[in-house]
Amino acid sequence: MGLMYHEDYKVPFYECDVNQNIKLSALLSLALQVSGKQSLSLGMSDEHVFNTYGLVWIVTDYDIEIQRLPHYSEKIRIETEAISYTKLFCYRHFYIKAESGEILLTIHSTFILMDFKTRKVHPVLDEIVAPYQSEKQKKAIKLPKLHPVEDGVLSEFPVRIYDLDMNRHVNNGKYLEWFFDSLGMDFLLDYEPKHIQLKYIKEVHYDYTIQSTVYVENNDDGKSTYHDISGDEGLHARAKIVWKERE
Amino acid sequence: MGLMYHEDYKVPFYECDVNQNIKLSALLSLALQVSGKQSLSLGMSDEHVFNTYGLVWIVTDYDIEIQRLPHYSEKIRIETEAISYTKLFCYRHFYIKAESGEILLTIHSTFILMDFKTRKVHPVLDEIVAPYQSEKQKKAIKLPKLHPVEDGVLSEFPVRIYDLDMNRHVNNGKYLEWFFDSLGMDFLLDYEPKHIQLKYIKEVHYDYTIQSTVYVENNDDGKSTYHDISGDEGLHARAKIVWKERE
């Protein structure tokens, strides 16, 4: 367990969807911003890591448990903690809490350090992670395998300029919008996500059209959907989402 | 001149574009949020106006003068002031200021009150605008006429679920993304906007594809672009943007 850091937030109108909940893409961006602030407060900002070591942090996996999505105007607390690290991976949790202290979402994330020039994974440096006081562990956490989508329904999304962030690739949060959008409005009005497993494989750039393939499975008490984001350069991301009926 | 209200803000990573400036769409959303907070602080929140009178505020026009767009991590102040009103229109200014006090953007906006049930414009009620202490004036401000785009280049944008806001129509900020996106990446890397005139004509809903038509005019010291957003239901918005070369 490492040092905790938190920030309070009030969900603004412009980050809410048609269900009056915060967009999950916006919540992920917000969570990353809070971990960035923790890094800054510990003297290990992204800029420092880049300038000193030529390395950048990359999220490779999310596992998100959702009790309830925050709603418009709700006051929430975003807590984060760098849990542990291995030779190659760093594990960080985020807890999104209601004002009452109840946990609304738990986000388990996996980060790697990438060498900006070679674009290759770089071993974790003890001096970079030391300030967070997280534990070093030998074994990487075994994430459940996500299987390729078969017999899926295809939607195409051209990448737009405003899908890109300052790094000129598609922002991580956008993938969730592609997953959700390919299910259609009726589905999203009837069901809400309760568990998301998401694996990022390869970044997406401008002037590119992605294919979002989705397969919907009916469960006893809801649905599971399986998603592949692909393009001319192969597979970019894969996800499984478990849904429950809205009340 | 009416009561001033302001809020300070630090531009987050996830609201920045490939040029490391805040996305204008995000800045407009933020500005509207600040005016919403002023209304709340004066006991005249959007909810109160809706619940008491069945009316909702609608932006019909923006005139935006841009000295410089705020950049990533910059601390800015958003000031707003309800300037004046007529029988049908309310005029509000926003000033986006740097930490030094320098004005970066001036946003002149025009609002109307719409009857939510009949979808028709409702005359401004003195009791709704009284708390802002703005002046009543007889004559409406004459906004420059925007002419239809001729010989324009067409791009099509299907409306996505996450283009919609809680009101289930396309968020006002999205139109700017459509205007900008239809100019392409090279244009946006070479030029920055210095003046925008934007007129909203009719809202856009889900399951709709909009046609964005743009005509580019070369000026001595930059370019002007003329934009129409149309669809099966006719014209939805129109804009003129004046651009200068990036330094």
> Share of helix among residues of chain A?
10-25%
Q: Which pair has the most extensive contact?
A: A-B, 32 and 32 residues
β-strand percent of chain A reads: 35-45%
The ordered string of helix (H) and strand (E) elements of chain A is: EHHEEEEEHEEHHEEEE
| Terminal CA distance of chain A | 36 Å
**Backbone CA Rg of chain A:** 18 Å
Can you give the mean pLDDT of chain A?
A: 96
Characterize the quaternary organization of these chains: homodimer
Poorly predicted sequence stretches spanning 5 or more consecutive residues of chain A: none
Shape verdict of chain A: globular
For the structure shown, list the relevant keywords.
247 residues; 5 helices; alpha+beta; globular; twelve-stranded mixed sheet; homodimer; 19% helix
Summarize the structure.
The structure is a homodimer of 247-residue chains. Chain A is of the alpha+beta class and 247 residues long. Chain A has helices at residues 24-41, 46-53, 126-129, 172-181, 185-190; strands at 4-10, 55-66, 75-85, 90-98, 103-115, 121-122, 135-136, 153-158, 191-200, 209-219, 222-231, 234-245.
Description:
Two copies of one chain form a homodimer. Chain A is of the alpha+beta class and 247 residues long. The first copy, chain A, has helices at residues 24-41, 46-53, 126-129, 172-181, 185-190, and strands spanning 4-10, 55-66, 75-85, 90-98, 103-115, 121-122, 135-136, 153-158, 191-200, 209-219, 222-231, 234-245. In chain A, strands 1, 2, 3, 4, 5, 6, 7, 8, 9, 10, 11 and 12 form a twelve-stranded mixed beta sheet that branches. In chain A, a hairpin with a 2-residue loop joins strand 11 and strand 12 (234-245). In chain A, helix 1 packs antiparallel against helix 4 (172-181). Chain A is globular, with a radius of gyration of 18 Å. Chain A starts with a strand and ends with a strand. In chain A, 35% of the residues are buried. The model of chain A has no long low-confidence stretch (mean pLDDT 96). The interface between A and B is medium-sized, with 32 and 32 residues.
